Each structure stands twice: as C-alpha cells, then as structure tokens.
Backbone:
C-alpha cells in the first residue's frame, strides 16, 4: 500500500532538488513549525491577509 508523503518529506525533496544542504532543510522545517505555532494550527486560507502575513511582520526572532 502506497502512502502519501507528509509535508516534511515533500519539503525535503524540494530542497534537495535545489541542492540545498541538510541544515537549510532543518531551518525551513523549524520556520514552518514556528509559523504553525503562531497561527494556532490554522490553515492560511482560513485567516485574513493581515493575520497570514503577521508572522513575517513580527520578525523571525
């Protein structure tokens, strides 16, 4: 039975296709996890424009 790849597997495959390093993959995954925590696990389509871009405006500390 074939299963669908999860988000991390898709992200890693895309980064490897662009010849990014493993540290870059890890940094992207960390940023995505922070965004998911910031939005309380809501999908960007369920948020308004200000709310979806508020994470970037707040800064990546």
Residues:
């Amino acid at each position: 039975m074939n299963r669908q790849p999860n988000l991390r597997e898709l992200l890693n495959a895309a980064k490897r296709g662009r010849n990014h390093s493993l540290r870059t993959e890890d940094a992207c995954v960390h940023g995505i996890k922070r965004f998911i925590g910031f939005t309380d696990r809501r999908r960007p389509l369920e948020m308004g424009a200000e709310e979806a871009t508020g994470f970037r405006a707040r800064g990546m500390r």
